[in-house]
Amino acid sequence: MQLRYAFRLYPQPGQRAALAKAFGCARVVFNDVVRAREDARGAGQPFPKAAELSRKLITEAKRTAERSWLGEVSAVVLQQSLRDAERAYRNFFASLNGTRKGPRIGPPRFKSRKDARQSIRFTANARWKITDGGRLDLPKIGAVKVKWSRTLPTTPTSVTVIKDAAGRYFASFVIDTDPAADAARMPDTDRTIGIDLGLTHFAVLSDGTAIDSPRFLRRAEKKLKKAQRELSRKQRGSRNRAKARLKVARAHAGVADARREFHHRLSTRLISENQGIAVEDLSVAGLARTRLAKSVHDAGWSSFIGMLEYKAERYGRIFVRVGRFEPTSQTCSACGHRDGPKPLHVREWTCRACGTLHDRDHNAAINVKTAAGLAVSACGAPVRPGAIPARREETGSRGSPPDARAA
Predict the structure, then answer these.
(1) To pair with 111 at 20 to 30 A between CA atoms, which of 4, 150, 265, 377?
(2) 182, 309, 361, 403: which is the annotated catalytic residue?
(3) Is 280 a catalytic residue?
């Protein structure tokens, strides 16, 4: 399986200028492809092929006075931008005819230099390399300083250089992992667990463990409000407004980074300690339209579940999504009696059939594990009698940015 490993870059002023030029050239090629496709559609003509677009918008454009500056950046960057536009159109058409799963997506839009995220991609053809001194040597940009937080397990197949809204630079490497080596890293265990996600606690496990919700956004609200208030008072188009906007973006980036780090640590621990994991398939998009929207977004359930899913696949663990309509909060985990719906403020309830006193979240976690069919055979191997695999069309947005998908 393929994963991305992201590392912070610290380019010099000259390298930042070269990266800005590369971002701009890639953006122009992408926009030219979209414009050519839209012009062909408006004229009732078939879409031009990728080879024709490459020849016209890159090779021939470099020889013109208007686009001669395209030759100042790596040709691989321009070709990858053209492929990105092609992929965007394929995804759009696949979404239209129903062959692409998930919510409907719109057609590719024109990119702007004011977009929050700018990126360029280098494949092996670009002859980029990691120097002996640990720098990332990129064609026509130079050797950029990298903050290595860990070693790369294998040789990367490509690298994407990203500039985010906070003005930070990252290098995202695509790694092909070895399933056998990954499975060997995990300790042997026969434990299985059910997880109930919530707002009072971020997660309650079927063994009774309650994991507190960090509430990163709530804790940073005072700082964010101050930064956003300062931004609103700055004159549009001024340098002070640009500085204030960067300050707000950095504050939001700090919240997102802290949340992502929490999700990674917790998901890795749960995958390491358990052979089987079951979680309820929540309708995050629906809950985000209620009065609990800010708290739901602050929790980041979709991102956390996505991490659990791909890490379980990577390390050979069992991961099951239980259907969202399973009455996990209404059913007694002791006798199986369905006691009826409970409002959110009811945190404890007594079963009318057997008299067992239940903690709402703990009871739901046990029911999630039971509904998933997770069990252990006599030989100690995990099995799933009557397992209920989640339907992909039921899942919400994955949420985790591709560049955060590393163990």
Answers:
(1) 4
(2) 361
(3) yes
